[in-house]
Amino acid sequence: MFLFKLINLLKGYLVVEVYGKFTEKFLNMAITRKIYLWDIKRHKNSITLKIGIDGYKALWPVCRKTGCKMRIKEKRGLPFKLNKLRRRKVFAFGILFFIIVLYISSKFVLFVDVSGLEEIDEIKFNEFLESQNLQRGAFHPFLDIDDIEHQILITFPRIAWTSIEIQGTRVVVNLVEKDLPEEYDHSPTDIVAKKDGLITKLLVLSGESVVEEGDVVTEGETIISGELFNEDTRTHMLVRSLGIVEARVWYQATGEAYQNELVLKETDEQIKKQHLNIFGWNIKIPSRQTYDLKDYYKRTVVTQPLKWRGLEFPINLITNSYTNYSGVDVTYTNDEIVDVAAKRAYRAAKHGIPKGIEIENKIIHIIEKSDDKVKVSVVLETIEDIRKDSIIKLEE
Q1: How many helices (H) and strands (E) does the chain have?
Q2: d(C-alpha 173, C-alpha 151), whole Å
Q3: CATH for 111-177?
């Protein structure tokens, strides 16, 4: 939408009033002839619309055929402003100078983004980029991107691939680090339970099992021991325990709901405040909306950088949206109140489950029910790997 407005301002457009008995026929005929109109507003005896300069000439035959008349209310856009500035050369020169400065400023680096760093120290890498003059304030046409990429690969042998992209005032450094083989730790360990559960699968690869499938273990309890006893030599040997341990784990939570509740619901009322950020300066865009930002407003900030023909200018349109929430009295039926309480308990129980773990079973139990309140317990059942290494401390 912002880009559309900007293009129309650059090309110029007219605000036109059309009046007559057949304004609807006028609109239909204009649309049929593929004349682009926008911001059409209907009044009692007329309509107002916006149209491009070229489209205005194409409207005259439509007026003659429909018997409508039209007049120009406003002329907007750069072409009309330039006509007014012909006698004001100094001001016109200032505008031109501003455009030139704006274009040159788009060649300066304002942001340097680095993605792909994992093991390499970020501070050390940023210091290296600064030593190559790849930093805020650098004039990027003077930067030798190929040489900087080459120097990165030489200075940081762990980096397998790098690419530097210039996106207007933003420079993006993409990296891929080499996957080095992990050093195997031979320290003797036990495998213990990292949480309570019922063992469903146990496969010992190294060490000796202390429990069996079907046993219930608690957090910290040893499952596979790294201490082995040799019957032949009558000696003890310490190894690093290895194995597969899966257990059935339960997550329990409760939820409450009342027969009559005050629930916050989103309304259709929305307020938007916009301002331009130019070189770090905020310029407020006037709005006709009146607002009083009080309770139950949710704020969302959307930033749209100005881009034109592959160039990114240091100008951002920032839109702050405020959505109103109002309290609504809700009365639940007997079935609904149980469902609401169960959903609240389910969300609370699910919050404790690690990401990527599937829920195998769900158990719902009503633990309290009165005329105006219901309390529900929800138990979620999962199958998880509950292994945790515990280093065996050697006695001195």
Answers
A1: 8, 22
A2: 13
A3: 3.10.20.310
**Residues sharing a CB contact under 8 Å with residue 222, sequence separation 6 or more, in sequence order:** 190, 191, 192, 210, 390
CATH architecture type of domain 2-82:
2-Layer Sandwich (3.30)
Q: Contact at 8 Å (CB) between 33 and 66?
A: no
Asked if 293 and 354 count as a contact pair (C-beta separation under 8 A), the reply is no
Q: Where are the domains of the chain?
A: 2-82, 111-177, 261-330
Exposure on the CB side of residue 354, measured as CA atoms within 13 A: 10
Task: Kindly report, residue by residue over 59-90, the tens digit of the pLDDT.
Answer: 888 888 888 888 888 888 888 777 776 667 77
Query: pTM, whole model, 2 decimals?
Result: 0.48
Q: Same CATH topology for 2-82 and 111-177? A: no
pLDDT digits (tens, 9 = 90+) for 6-16: 777 778 888 88
Alpha-carbon distance of 125 to 152, in angstroms, equals: 9
Looking up tokens 């290296």 gives 128
* CA–CA separation, 315 and 281 (whole Å): 9
Per the CB < 8 A criterion, the answer to whether 59 and 51 are in contact is yes
